[in-house]
From TrEMBL:
One of its GO terms (molecular function) is thiamine pyrophosphate binding. GO terms for biological process: cellular respiration; small molecule metabolic process. This is Putative ferredoxin oxidoreductase beta subunit. It comes from Shewanella sediminis (strain HAW-EB3). Keywords: Oxidoreductase. The keyword Oxidoreductase applies.
Length: 350
C-alpha cells in the first residue's frame, strides 16, 4: 500500500494567477477515517487558497490536538505549520502574528479543542481581534479520543455509544459574537458551494474571522440521535445569508445590489456579495445574529451562512498601534535606538 500521492501532473492542468495548480495547495495523504467531514474541509481550504492565488509560503497554518487539528497536514504542504498542545493554538498564533504580521494565519481546531480545554484561549484571541481565520471542525464529540461528547453537543444529543449530553451546549458562533469577532459564519463540510466562498471571504477579512464548520464524525457520531450526523444536518439546515466572494482581479460591480442582495467591499478591495435567504436577516447587526442563531436552534434547526460581518473592523495591530514593519524584520538600530532616545522618552514623563 502506498502512503504517498503520485507526483505526476498533466502538463495542461489549469493554473492560477501565480502559475500554480490545485495540486500545489494540497498536503499529505489523509489518514482520517474514510468519509470524515474534516477531509471535506481540507478540500475546501485547498480550493479557496488556490482560487485566491495565495503564495503558499506566505501562509501559516496552526492547529491544536484532535482529528480536526491533524487536518492542516493534509492541505498546503508548502506553508508554515505548527501543531500546538491541546487547545493552545490561539496563543501560538498570537505569538507568531506578533512576530510577523505579514503572513496569512489559518487556525484549525476542533470543538473539543476550542470549547473545552482551549475555551479561555479562544475567548482571548477573539477579543484581541487577531487578524486570522479561525476554523472549528465541529462534530459534537472528541473524535481522536473515541467519541466522548464535546461541550458543543446540545442537551439530549446522543453519541454512538448512546451517552446523552446532560448539559447546556456552548455555541461557538454566539460566543465569538459576544467576544467581539468581526466576521462570524457557520457552514457544513458537505456544502462546498457555501463553504469555499466563506473561507475566501474570511481570509480576505481584516481582523478576527471565525467559521464554525459542522463536520460529521462518521465513526463515533453519525447515528440517528446525533444532531451532527450527515442526515440530521441535511434535514435541518436554515441559511442566513449566502456569501459569494468576488476577487478584485475579476470584473467587479460595486454598486448596491437589489433588495435581496448587497455588495460589501472588504479591506483588500475584494467584494463579498451577500444574498439574503431570510428576507429580514441583517448581517451587520451583532445582537440580531445572536438572537437568530438561538431562535433557529430552539426550532431544532441549524443556522448556516454568514451571520455577521463588520467590513470596517480593526485588528490587534491597529488597536495596539504596533509598527507596520513585522517585528522579525526590524533591525538592531530600530530596536535599540540608543540612550538619547530613552532620555527623551523619560523626560516626556517628568
Ligand atoms: C492536555 C491534553 N489533554 C487531553 C488530550 C487527549 N485528547 C486528544 S484529542 C482530544 C479531543 C479532540 O477533540 P476535538 O477537538 O473535538 O477534535 P476531533 O478529534 O473531534 O476532530 C483529547 C481530549 C491531549 N492530547 N492533551
Ligand atoms: S474518528 Fe471521527 S473525527 Fe476522527 S477521523 Fe474518524 S471520523 Fe473523523
Amino acid at each position: 500500500m502506498s502512503y504517498r500521492k503520485p507526483q505526476f501532473r498533466h502538463p495542461r492542468l489549469e493554473v492560477n494567477d501565480l502559475g500554480l495548480t490545485h495540486r500545489d495547495y494540497e498536503g499529505a495523504l489523509s489518514t482520517l477515517c474514510a468519509g470524515c467531514g474534516h477531509d471535506a474541509i481540507t478540500a475546501a481550504v485547498t480550493q479557496a487558497c488556490a482560487e485566491l492565488s495565495l503564495p503558499p509560503h506566505r501562509i501559516a497554518k496552526i492547529s491544536g490536538i484532535g482529528c480536526s487539528s491533524k487536518a492542516p497536514n493534509y492541505f498546503l504542504n508548502h506553508a508554515h505549520g505548527f501543531n500546538t498542545v491541546h487547545g493552545r493554538m490561539p496563543s501560538v498564533a498570537t505569538g507568531a502574528n506578533m512576530a510577523n504580521r505579514d503572513l496569512i494565519y489559518l487556525g484549525m481546531s476542533g470543538d473539543g479543542d476550542s470549547a473545552s480545554i482551549g475555551f479561555g484561549q479562544f475567548a482571548h484571541v477573539v477579543r484581541r481581534r487577531l487578524n486570522m481565520l479561525y476554523m472549528v471542525a465541529n462534530n459534537g464529540v472528541y473524535g481522536l479520543t473515541k467519541g466522548q461528547l464535546a461541550a458543543t453537543a446540545e442537551q439530549g444529543m446522543k453519541n454512538k455509544a448512546g451517552e446523552a449530553s446532560l448539559f447546556t451546549d456552548i455555541d461557538l458562533c454566539v460566543s465569538a459574537l459576544q467576544f467581539g469577532a468581526t466576521f462570524v459564519a457557520r457552514s457544513f463540510s458537505g456544502d462546498k458551494a457555501q463553504l469555499v466562498p466563506l473561507i475566501k471571504a474570511a481570509i480576505s477579512h481584516k481582523g478576527f474571522a471565525f467559521i464554525d464548520i459542522i463536520s460529521p464524525c462518521v465513526t463515533f457520531n453519525n447515528n440517528p440521535d446525533s444532531t451532527r450526523s450527515y442526515d440530521y444536518v441535511h434535514d435541518h439546515i436554515v441559511t442566513a445569508a449566502v456569501a459569494d466572494f468576488v476577487p478584485v482581479k475579476q470584473e467587479i460591480r460595486c454598486e448596491n445590489g437589489d433588495a435581496d442582495s448587497e455588495d460589501i467591499c472588504l479591506h483588500d478591495g475584494s467584494i463579498l456579495r451577500l444574498s439574503r435567504i431570510q428576507p429580514d436577516y441583517d448581517a451587520h447587526d451583532r445582537l440580531h445574529a445572536m438572537a437568530r442563531i438561538e431562535q433557529v436552534k430552539a426550532e431544532g434547526k441549524i443556522l448556516t451562512g454568514l451571520m455577521y460581518i463588520d467590513p470596517e473592523a480593526d485588528d490587534y495591530h491597529e488597536i495596539n498601534q504596533t509598527t507596520d514593519t513585522p517585528l522579525n524584520a526590524l533591525k538592531q538600530e530600530t530596536l535599540c535606538p540608543g540612550n538619547h532616545v530613552l532620555q527623551t522618552i523619560n523626560e516626556s514623563f517628568r
